[in-house]
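Question thread 4412

I'm putting together a teaching handout and wanted feedback from people who do this every day. The idea is simple: show students a protein as raw sequence, then show them the structure tokens that encode its fold, then repeat with a second protein so they can compare. Below is the first pair exactly as I plan to print it.
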Amino acid sequence: MSRPALEVADIFRTAGPAYRRARAGHLSFGQLRVMSAIEACRTAALGGHVSACQKCGHAHIAYNSCRNRHCPKCQSAAAYAWLDARRAELLPVGYFHVVFTLPALIAAIAYTNKAAIYDALFKAAAQTLTTIAADPKHLGAKIGATMVLHSWGSALTHHPHLHCIVPGGGLSLGGQSWISSRPRYLLPVPVLASLFRRLMCERLAALHDAGKLIFLSDHAGLADPAAFQAFLKPLRDIDWVVYAKAPFAGPDQVLRYLARYTHRVAIANSRLIDFDGAHVSFRYKDYRADGAERQKIMTLGVDEFIRRFLLHVLPDGFHRIRHVGFLANGGRAAAIAKARALLGVPTPKAEPVDVDAAVAPPCPQCGGPMLVVERFERGVTPRYRPSSVGIDSS
């Protein structure tokens, strides 16, 4: 596995200490922990192992990964394992991609209320999908969805939105039949947007009434109930962004999509272009442009780059991937088995993803199998003398 020329870890190791000193007392424990984990990832600080080729004897040292969910290097292995579990759950139906986006005004107060407002976003979107789908005027079925939170825009700005992967149909409300959606149409987007807006505003008002929202700096005045109601009023009158993409071509495309989205972090190392110690340049997409003009390069001061990256650190224990409807964790296996029976298709044989092959490539010299010949703890020098230094995700 080749190492990118530039990584977020390189930027954190160079500029992180000064950034932390300048903002002592203003960074959360979670943000500090993420920075430390990324800086230590796949270095001697975390220990590792030595692998040797069983054919030619070529050996290299592989340092352990931090396994932090915000680390750009650690998410590919996590995605493979997660996808292995999802593969057997796919149904032989079309799948739709529905996106729910919070307006900028709500995003502005969500940063200091991540757990409360992100949770409200999940619940409002889930209720919207299941309510409209259950209405006999639309589908009249109990549907399911896998929902993934992204809090960023392409330029690392704060832009909370949910990506929902929804099977094209659901179980009848009595559970006796499978009701399919139309091939290229799931649910009416304007109706989804209207209900999502109402439910989200209701949840925000309830959170405020319960004293569960924190307002700082320019938003401090919103702690007053009357001011918060005035804040919500224009939000009830504008159009909220909900859109549905064309259905996927098949199960393999669904899996490829999930692999890209479920374990993505705010920025991939592959998007980084240059770091001169003071500025960071990276690729981003300008969605206001079309075609080749959409791909652009942004340069930020290193402190601003780190600040934007840390905007997207989630609260401890917050689940950014959730399953709702008949795909909810409690009854998912039974519901999928029933759906397969109603669709008249057998349960597929498990075809596990070879995670080791995905993250531990064969010998770079001859292609032979690489086996571990020594493991060492963090901070310890290995006894075996490898011929090269590699990376690992163990």
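The second pair follows. I'd like the answer to focus on this one:
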Amino acid sequence: MALLELCHVSKRYRRGVRCVEVLDDVSLEVLEREVIAVWGPGRSGRSTLLRIAAGIVAPDEGVVRFRGSPLRPGGGAIAGGVTYCRPAFHSLEGQAVLEELIASQLALGVRPAIARLRASHELERVGARQCEGYRPFELDRAEEVRVAIARALLQGPSLLLIDEPTKGVSSMERERILELLRSLTDDGVAVLMTLDKGVGLFGADRALSLAEGRLRGHVVPELAPVVELPLRASG
């Protein structure tokens, strides 16, 4: 059984008098411990695809299943389920990174001592332990991405959905972040990510493209070879 299934999903939005088909009969299966990269141009529907896969937005047609059960928007969090991550880190209270990660757990009833241990562990896990005392405006772009991933991992997901984790980072940091996402599969976390360019696909099991509402590539894992693209983008 696939971890996540999108079955004949379609989504439309109105832009003025126009009705734009953002996703047109899209199907996709994601397996346990798999890394999938979806790339495409701006306004191709990449973010919409992730938000539907996370149960944040409802499709106009089709169904989304997680571990075989329908994933319904507003249905509440699934333990060990799906976590959607936007790789940006903000704090409304202006707190330092560690305190912000602790506060996000206290709101869920986690005891303070355990919340602190978990927050420190996840920052260490993503290579951002040095950021504990930084405030959001003091983080560089790569650190911001790593801290956002740490906050998402505090939810204990089986599937991490992350939107453009390499946007705005240097080529060297891009590869390191992709290596980090690949390493999450060692802990049983599958990753579905979007990219704005067809470069930097290092470590992906499958690379798919999205344009004009259509998802192209090996959408069914049984048919897909392992993608070996250790590309080092210039610039």
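Top answer:
Good format. For the second protein you could add a caption like this: The mean pLDDT is 87. The chain has five helices and ten strands.
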